[in-house]
Amino acid sequence: MELTESIRLLFPPEERAQLDISAIKGDASNRQYYRVTGQGSVSVVCADPAFRATAVENYPFLIVRDLFARHGIRVPELLGMVHEQGLLRLEDCGDLMLQDEVPLLDRNRLSARYRQVIDLLVRIQSIRPDKDALTTTLPFSLSFDHEKLMFEFDFFIEHALNGYFAGRLGKPAIARLREEFINICDLLVLPKHFVLNHRDFHSRNIMLFRAEPVVIDFQDARLGLPQYDAVSLLRDSYVRLDPGMVNELKRYHFNQLVQLGLTSMGEAEYLRLFDLMAFQRNVKAIGTFCYQTTVAGNRTFEPSIAATLSYLREYIEARPELAMAGRLLKPIIPEISR
């Protein structure tokens, strides 16, 4: 059965012949998205091969969507599914992303919007397992442990240093850099400080629907430092905020964590770990963008490589723990190269 015919099965029989189905530009994943317009209704259909291959009760998207919804996090409504075809019918929350709104707002309104989004982030980070649930269930069974962080660093080595930037760093330098990556991971694996993270909390995964932020692409949620999602938002590969505003918003996030009893860190430790986490998160993103460009053949992410690299110099100059990694990465960081 063709995909469009499978999509029609999500709708009442009397509507199927009249549906208008159009593809929506998706993210850097294997999922495909379609906007479906019917008789007085519009919805979005996600086609995910992973859903077809997974039992409904074990599918991360549905588990996290239900968890977020139960805790008052605005996520798209689930309108139906055809499991055997890997299809989900979801509420259409429009096309306006936080990324699109940033250039339209003056400083005060932009700051207010980001504070609203940070309030939403802290609500996510406040979620704990239900009393009758085990921490061995998703998403609380996953974390940014040493293995996960190193997987992301190794992905960067494979697809950025040995792929997109092949020849810039020799094998001895890459081997020494990997040792530094291991040391950085050791500094970031602090389970006593872990909270629930969305895992990809940036301006393209926050829709603005009827002036309200709606969270999407949350299926990879896991435990980690509260700075992880804050980095995704404030050191965003797609949006560059004014440095003064970033500093204000970092402190706003820290103060919200303190007020809600979600952290025992002092402010200096929060800011230090923010920079270390930002280094890891941005390096991970560069690896993804290089993979999309050189392996997947999707060049729409290529401009984000330089944009994300440009963040690294600040962390390297601010934190002695990153000095050696910075020296080794010098051939691919323009500001350091000059």
TrEMBL record:
Residues 20-252 form the Aminoglycoside phosphotransferase domain. InterPro entries: Aminoglycoside_PTrfase, Kinase-like_dom_sf. SUPFAM superfamilies: Protein kinase-like (PK-like) (SSF56112). Pfam families: APH (PF01636). This is Aminoglycoside phosphotransferase domain-containing protein.
